Amino acid sequence: MPQLDTVYIFFTYIWTWFILYLIMLKVKTFMITSSPKKQQQTKLNKPSPTLPWT
Questions:
Q1: Looking at the chain, which runs of residues are DSSP E strands?
Q2: So what's the pLDDT on residue 47?
Q3: Residue 17 vs residues 4, 10, 11, 22, 23: alpha-carbon distances, Å
Q4: What are phi and psi of 24, to 5 degrees?
Q5: What confidence score (pLDDT) does residue 24 get?
Q6: What span, in angstroms and rounded, lies between the C-alpha atoms of 18 and 5?
Q7: Which one of 6, 10, 21, 49 has the fewest CB atoms closer than 10 angstroms to its CB?
Q8: pLDDT score at 14
Q9: What does the pLDDT look like over 3-19, one tens digit per residue?
Q10: pTM value?
Q11: Angle at CA 37, nearest 5°, toward 35 and 26?
Q12: Of 7 and 31, the one with more pLDDT
């Protein structure tokens, strides 16, 4: 029954793209709801002294 194989492949293809689409939506809404947090400004570290063997 080759028609059954074709239908099975088609539905697997559709299901895969549907799941990928849902994952994309979930990631997009997650990124929107989690607002960017302020980064704390760190003090600038003084450069280390040069090593004597360089």
A1: none
A2: 73
A3: 20, 11, 10, 9, 10
A4: -60, -40
A5: 93
A6: 20
A7: 49
A8: 98
A9: 789 999 999 999 999 99
A10: 0.51
A11: 35
A12: 7
Q: At 6, which amino acid appears?
A: T
Of 2 and 26, which is predicted with more confidence?
26
The first and second tokens of residue 27, run together, are: 């990631």
Number of helical (H) and strand (E) elements in the chain, helices listed first: 1, 0
Q: What pLDDT score does 29 carry?
A: 79
CA distance 23 to 48: 46
Q: Where are the domains of the chain?
A: 1-27
Residues 23, 42: Cα–Cα separation, whole Å: 36
Alpha helices in the chain (DSSP H): 2-33
Task: Report residue 31 as tokens.
Answer: 């990124």
* Overall size of the chain counted in residues: 54
